[in-house]
Amino acid sequence: MIDTELPSTTDAPGTDAAPPKPAKAAKTSQKSLRRRSRELALQGLYEWLLSREKTSVISSHMREQANFDPCDAEHFDALLGGCIDEAAQIDAALARHVDRKISELSPVEHGVLMIGVYELMHCIDIPYRVVINEAVELAKSFGGTDGHKFVNGVIDKTAADLRAVEVEAARAARR
After folding, report:
1. Which of 21-30, 42-51, 82-91 has the lowest mean pLDDT?
2. Of 110, 118, 129, 96, which Cα lies nearest the Cα of 46?
3. 3-state class of 70 per DSSP?
4. Per-residue pLDDT tens over the stretch 114-123
């Protein structure tokens, strides 16, 4: 968890030490809220992939969790509902870059990949590198030992398809 408290100063009173700079709480807080919404959406997608329960039922399950409150509820709703509603299109985008049938993916990897592809398709305000990084972090936290490597490769290749201009610009800037 990211600590957003201001550091305390140990300077003696009367010194000319500058006051501590305020932490970037708004940006840090927003990022952690989005990360939490991704985690909850992944848990909801896992439930959906195993049960095919209605989105509203799964959303209710997730919202009943004691740790739901510290999340970006709007982003959670978009991810969970969007991934379920657009599962066929998302899976079609993934199918080009996975080395096996979509049905053979673990539910955790599948859910992480769905979130990543949904964000690439619809969350243009999130840079593609952030989408990749967040997907990798989800896979590290919830997936198998080397699942994050697989997720990284698939989302990177999918980003090149879905956000070709952004990816090419970033690659050109590195040259």
Report:
1. 21-30
2. 110
3. coil
4. 999 999 999 9
Residues 6 or more apart from 142 whose CB is under 8 A from it?
39, 42, 108, 112
8-state DSSP, 89: H
pLDDT tens-digit map of 41-52: 999 999 999 999
Compute the average pLDDT of residues 103-124. 98
pTM value > 0.85: no
Cα distances from 52 to residues 112, 134, 136, in angstroms, run 17, 25, 25
* φ/ψ of residue 29, rounded to 5: -60, -45
Distance of CA 172 to the CA centre of its chain: 25
Rounded to the nearest 10°, the torsion over CA 95, 100, 106, 107 is: 20
Residue 3 vs residues 29, 36, 41: alpha-carbon distances, Å: 9, 15, 23
Task: State the DSSP code for 143.
Answer: S
Long-range contacts of 7-16 (CB under 8 A, 24+ apart): none
CB 113 within 8 A of CB 135: yes
